[in-house]
Amino acid sequence: MTTPLRLGIAGLGTVGAGVVKIVRQKANLLADRAGRPVTITAVSARSRDKDRGVNISAYAWEDDPVALATRDDVDVLVELMGGSDGPAKAATEAALAAGKHVVTANKAMLAYHGQALAEAAEAAGAALRFEAAVAGGIPVIKALAEGLAGNDITRVMGVMNGTCNYILTRMQSAGLPYEDVFEEARKLGYLEADPSLDVGGIDAGHKLALLAAIAFGTRVNFGAVALEGIERITIDDIRHADHLGYRIKLLGVAQMTGRGLEQRMSPCLVPKHSPLGQLEGGTNMVVLEGDQVEQIVLRGPGAGEGPTASAVMGDIIDIARGARMPVFGVPAADLTQATSARTTAPAPYYLRMALEDKPGALAKVATVLGDAGISIDRMRQTRHEARTAPVLIVTHSTTRAALDEALAAMTGLDVIAQPPVALRIETA
Amino acid sequence: MTTPLRLGIAGLGTVGAGVVKIVRQKANLLADRAGRPVTITAVSARSRDKDRGVNISAYAWEDDPVALATRDDVDVLVELMGGSDGPAKAATEAALAAGKHVVTANKAMLAYHGQALAEAAEAAGAALRFEAAVAGGIPVIKALAEGLAGNDITRVMGVMNGTCNYILTRMQSAGLPYEDVFEEARKLGYLEADPSLDVGGIDAGHKLALLAAIAFGTRVNFGAVALEGIERITIDDIRHADHLGYRIKLLGVAQMTGRGLEQRMSPCLVPKHSPLGQLEGGTNMVVLEGDQVEQIVLRGPGAGEGPTASAVMGDIIDIARGARMPVFGVPAADLTQATSARTTAPAPYYLRMALEDKPGALAKVATVLGDAGISIDRMRQTRHEARTAPVLIVTHSTTRAALDEALAAMTGLDVIAQPPVALRIETA
Question: Cβ(A228)–Cβ(A251) under 8 Å?
């Protein structure tokens, strides 16, 4: 097969420019590995004249990504614009409708429109691939959908937002408050234009929803991810956790239980010397568990030009080699609509709150916990000079339902000066 | 595509029985993921009547694996007999000659005959896949040959023999001498029939040679792997290393340098809190480094029924889905014959030896090191009651060439009671 595979690249930001560089600089290597030349025919971006450190003058230019997607001389739309809707979705739909393959790094688009796009791709006999959408350079979609295809997957978990992990590890290492490190991250360009996508756990939630769909053969259901961001984590939480032997990580977990599919993305305490606990900065880690393979752990850079472009190129080379498989591992029509379930597995929880400095305040909180059947492992009221007293509680293992009952009852107490932050302690 | 993919399974040991179980128990899941039913037509093994915990009466029986491989009703030979030559090689060659695909877990066969078999497979247009041959359940071949196909790979390293890692971690945790743990491992069935395959580093060397071929587009060259086993590691080495902040691991490294391809598999000291240092028991870890992706680390079970069968099934499902690619990532004819190079990157080394209890003994050793341009970081002569004195030296960073010069000169010294054990200290 010596017909070239012709790419149309929509979006020439960091990742798009990275893909152009690889295609230009590694033509021989890619042709040898792909079994045919990989070329770029046309590109599209917001501004034609911006300096991207790469020469795009040899490629046809399209102002409109939809026009790019449907060009006769484009076999694969490489969608690197981002955004769940708008031009990214329009171009992807147009490409699939025209029977062209799509490679994208767009987690938001797939989290919201994955099912419809998968159906469109499969109806057209086109590939729709998105390795770069989850965990940057780590080939986790490939590992899950292909490498572990002989397994019933039991659980998927991971740290999949490098910005949150940067913020949390930097708070830990530099002893800085959340606000300062957030500002640092903003200046370094680590944050999305809408920072809540990162620190609200939304971006990581998108990724978890995509992995869950593949793992359990279910329709992508981002709306069912129980989301908590890292915005309420304080330097005191980081210090308390450290003191208890833990690190705080924005951790995603998806598992199929008798009651349905659990999906959650929330800050958790993990043992500081565990692989997850040792994860620093922008590095991602994904844990895949299957009935045959037990546990596979994958670690690597979660973002950046090279790693993300590497994931995009892996998909492109697969397409060039002729690999075809259903978008989420099984035909879109066979993906089931899973009941979504709240977290059932019990765990200890870390609670931090502020109480009014009144006699009996602590007793009221302890009573509420006791009434919900939650026993206390440790409780500590730290020294204070204000009118409110910071209180730290570590519970024994309890269910999320019992905890929610206690948290609801606490909001009615007149002694709660600041509503509790509750973080799950993951020990396995 | 609803034509079933029909398997002929040669070898019904632990892994073969595991594959049969998966195909029987997950028929619907596999069909959904593969896009067509996956069935078993025929099987072959040494003994027909052995109880394997799985019912094979529904499958045709062949005494001769070559006959199995060439049956009209077999599309894929699943070769799980093992052994570099003999029936495994005969059946594989026969299957490929008949245009049938082959999935194998046989690292030895590929380490010795990889090039010829790859040429045969490609000439026949058949797939030859071997995910299960390297690092058990970890989909490392897939990650390297497919996921990272857009990278120039710079280095591959890993701990890939679970038995050696079991022995080394057990010596550490239980404080037992090598011989006792070796005996334990033998009783537990962890050792190959010829234990030197494990403890001599040969099995791990086979795996490294396969990864190096894919990583660097070179012909498999197991003969060029600088092999050292773990047989000379003593409980004192384990203790000294611990004291210095290290663990001893049988570590493989392959990298392309200006002088050629370096491949080595040898016991090394790695920092005890590093991911490699923390690796326990039968778990494997592989580190893949590429110019785009920086570093990807994969961890998982390196052996056992479920994990190995998982890897075999991943290959089978890929074949069912129609995935075809060159055996070592690029066409066999394009694989280059790399010059093999000795290790060039300098590193500190750990040396342990026994000296005759004579005046000036230590000075002679220090002089030899100095003459080779090697400076000493630490040197310790431990207390002893015998006529010989155990001596421990940690050098500053030096080249392997300088070290070899010093080691050669030491053998000529009249004060060396026991030739030195030299272990590289890997800090990155």
Answer: no
CATH top class, domain A140-301+334-341: alpha beta
CA A338 to chain CA centroid, Å, is 20
Residue B171 makes CB contacts below 8 A (sequence gap 6+) with: B177, B178, B181, B233, B235, B238
- For the stretch B120-177, pLDDT in tens is 999 999 999 999 999 999 999 999 999 999 999 999 999 999 999 999 999 999 999 9
pLDDT tens-digit series, residues A333-350: 999 999 998 888 899 999
Quote the CA–CA distance of A214 and A222 in Å, as a whole number. 13
What pLDDT sits at residue A428?
A: 64
Contact criterion met (CB < 8 Å) for B314 and A149: yes
d(CA A375, CA A392): 14
ipTM > 0.90 (yes/no): yes
Give the percent of chain B with pLDDT over 70. 99
Contact check, Cβ <8 Å, A29/B298: no
Domain-by-domain residue ranges, chain B? 5-129, 140-301+336-341, 349-425
Fold match, B140-301+336-341 / B349-425: no
Topology, domain A349-425: Alpha-Beta Plaits (3.30.70)
Task: Give CA B247 to chain center in angstroms.
Answer: 19
- The answer to whether A365 and A353 have CB atoms below 8 angstroms apart is yes
Minimum distance, in Å, between the CA of residue A416 and any CA atom of chain B: 42
* Secondary structure letter of residue B332 according to DSSP: G
Distance CA(B193)–CA(B185), nearest Å, equals 12
Question: By the CB < 8 Å criterion, does A138 face chain B?
Answer: yes
- DSSP output for A6-62: EEEEE--SHHHHHHHHHHHHTHHHHHHHHSS-EEEEEEE-S-SS---SS--TTSEEE
Name which of B296, B307, B318 is nearest A293 (Cβ-Cβ).
B307
Q: Binning pLDDT at 50, 70 and 90, where does residue A193 land?
A: confident
Q: Angle between the B107-124 and B86-97 helix axes, to the nearest 10 degrees?
A: 10
CA B149 to chain A, closest CA, distance in angstroms equals 6
CATH class of B140-301+336-341: alpha beta
Choice between B381 and B22, residue whose per-residue pLDDT is larger: B22
Mean pLDDT of B294-306: 96
- Cα–Cα separations (whole angstroms), residue A142 to A268, B142, B316: 27, 8, 15
Helix ranges, B50-139 (H)? 65-69, 86-97, 107-124
Q: CATH number of the domain at B5-129, please?
A: 3.40.50.720
The answer to whether residue A207 is catalytic is: yes
User: Distance between CA atoms of B102 and B68, rounded to whole angstroms?
Assistant: 12
Tell me which of A25, A140, A296, A315 to substitute to probe the interface with B (most B C-beta atoms closer than 10 Å).
A296
Q: What is the pLDDT of residues A119-144, one digit of tens each?
A: 999 999 999 999 999 999 999 999 99
A window 214-253, beta carbon within 8 A of B = 217
pLDDT for A192: 86
Out of B207, B249, B272, B364, which one is annotated catalytic?
B207
